[in-house]
Amino acid sequence: MAEAKVRDAPGLLRETHPEGYVPLPKEGETNILITSALPYCNNMPHLGNIIGSTLSADVFSRYNRTKNRKTLYICGTDEYGTATERQAQKEGKTPKELCDFYWDVHKKTYDWFELGFDYFGRTSTPKHTDITQAVFMNLRKNDFLERKETLQLYCEEDQKFLADRFAEGTCPYCSYPDARGDQCDGCSRTLDAIELINPRCVDNTSHKVVTKSSVHMYLKLDAIQPRVEEWIRQSWAAGKWSPNNVVNGSGEIIDGRLKAGLKPSAITRDLKWGVPVPAGGGENELGTEGKVIYCWFDAPLGYPSITANLTPDWEQWWFNQRDVKLYQFMGKDNIYFHTVFFPSMLIGDSRPWTMLHHVSGTEFLNYEGGKFSKSRNLGVFGTQAQQTGVPASVWRYYLLANRPESADSMFSWADFITANNSVLLNNFGNFVNRTLKFAVAKYQSTVPPSSDPAGPLSLPADDEDAGFVTDINRLIQTYNSYMDSVRIREGLQVVMQVSARGNLYLQGAGLNNALLESNPQRCALVISRAINLIWVLSALVSPFMPSVEQSILRQLACPPRTVPDTNANGDGAFGIDLLGGHVLGKTEYLFVRIDDKQAEVWRGMFGSTSGNAAAATAEGEVKGKGKPKKDKAASTSGGVAGAATAVKEKVKKVKEPKAKKGEKKEGTTTKTSDPQGDKKQEADVKKDTMESTSDIPVPSAGTGAAVPETAT
Ligand SMILES: [Zn+2]
Ligand SMILES: [Zn+2]
């Protein structure tokens, strides 16, 4: 690649790092530490798990990297606990063998979805044991642990205590007959095995189950509660938490457990597979030898321990309240745990732990009118997404555009295809392709020199393009503000609005051969501005679709850039950064049309309740948490269709040049491409999805295709 002709300005280019580089926080700067909930290491992840936590966190970490912020994204598998031990028994493996197997499945799945963890580790490591035991001992030293002797279920045949999933029985709350010892799938309540009515041993229902006393250590959550509540109030305000099931949009604590007063919680178990309870408790802990620490206690310490397995300097990230902001991503069922239980452990430990700054919880993604179900073969699991032949970028786009931020959302094959064809291909792909093909054909693959000086554009109001530049600056400002507040779905909408605005610009300017001949200065100006917008777009889209950015950068033959910031007046972001005379690369197609008929094929491959959602829910999963609410804002059909009307209005205002005979439209191309060969408050979220940019909506089916391709 020839040297790119790029404006010389500090902070314009993205910092790049050699393989094996480990980011460490920089004093006095904003350093971003990101975690996604550690997936259990005993099953296949499905699309809902991916959008709920790992993919969202990936987008946020990539966004921060586009700002050249020191960013660390940590994830890994949660390996201890009865769920693993029980599954291992079923599969005839040791827990370690089971975890090795599923760690690999998870890793491969996330790699395919292009998730860019700084490190994807696991919790069954010596460092994890050390860190967990250290916290346990600090809590003991600080008098936040107490010993209790309680009755537990015990199987006489197996001669063992039946903790959590080793016991089943009838739920005392809803009478569901197959409640597990840790949770009831009928009513979703967490249970203590001893509460089960008619308890039975899961190994063999004929085994005799009795109660027997056992000694366990309890975390005195009641003693820590005043401090954790004070911390919640501070962090809620500082980190601008979205309303969730612990604290609402006014900062009022609504969790029932906190309101009733927390109770001491058992943090040890009669099991073998886990972090051993550390010795040295003296009289006070007599009888806890040989037991393990409960998996809910050790799991969140996986975040620091996985970091410790990445770098010996892990404490720079985890004991750094001043310079590090911790963002944690999870499904909504995990919020209590990350905002109450885990912070209580850290507060009780009394070292200066980096505490949660912003919590991002998502609702659930459902599948084709029902729920994901491995046993009924409904949905896409693990690396199965690969079997569709659709690149990971399109999957990422669709999942993120439907991210269940404020209500459950629904995966549908028909919407998936519409998203690809109408938004990615006809809007985004069309803008990039049309511009670059014109430059390649008419300007010998260069950025034409124009009358614009290098640097941010500030056009006088009488300039033809003043409105365009103002709109782009405003969109970039909106994008930055959404992304900084982790409103990922809306950030992605803005990216599509930027490319839609680009299409309108080309259309309004009447870019074609006639313009080139009649007004070459104007034509060069338009192409130079459009190419510079494409470079900005590559950075805006990079958190969502990293491979798409790579393809654009190959086509532009230039290095990755940062997402620009606007100044206090809301402008100064968009300008001429890629200069006249710069030599471009070869054009590539970013997206390929998907035939509508594929929906039926994929329904056949991955199962479907065939639109009979009500029947499926009734007959199917008793497990549900109520019927899925359709998230209007999140649904592709709602979002895109709604925007479609608006964009038609807008497009009408711009004179549409007629396509010449024989001109191709990218929308109808059948050529295969290889671009992928090579990531405020909820009340507001609902009402203002399109508010600040409402006159530049995302185009829908037809509008992009109506834009003629350049005559070549
Ligand atoms: Zn129940
Ligand atoms: Zn038994």
Write a structural description.
The chain has 712 residues and is of the alpha/beta class. Among the domains are: 31-134 and 296-382, HUPs (Rossmann fold); 144-222 and 240-285, Methionyl-trna Synthetase, domain 2 (Beta Complex); 426-583, Isoleucyl-tRNA Synthetase, Domain 1. 40% of the residues lie in helices and 12% in strands. It has helices spanning 47-66, 82-91, 95-112, 126-141, 221-238, 256-260, 295-298, 302-310, 315-318, 335-349, 392-401, 413-442, 466-484, 488-509, 513-518, 520-541, 546-556, 598-606, 613-619, 636-653, 682-687, 703-706; strands at residues 31-36, 70-77, 119-122, 145-155, 160-161, 167-170, 179-180, 197-201, 209-219, 265-266, 268-269, 292-293, 324-331, 356-362, 365-367, 409-411, 455-456, 575-576. The strands form six sheets. Strands 3-2-1-13-14 form a five-stranded parallel sheet, with helices on both faces. Strands 5-4-9-10 form a four-stranded antiparallel sheet. It has a three-stranded antiparallel sheet with strand order 7-6-8, with no helix packed on it. α11 links the parallel β15 and β16. α4 (126-141) crosses α8 (302-310), α12 packs antiparallel against α16 and α14 (488-509) runs antiparallel to α16. It is elongated, with a radius of gyration of 28 Å. Residues 611-712 have low confidence and may be disordered. Bound molecules: zinc ion (ZN) (2 copies). Residues 155, 157-158, 201, 203-204, 207 line the site of one zinc ion.
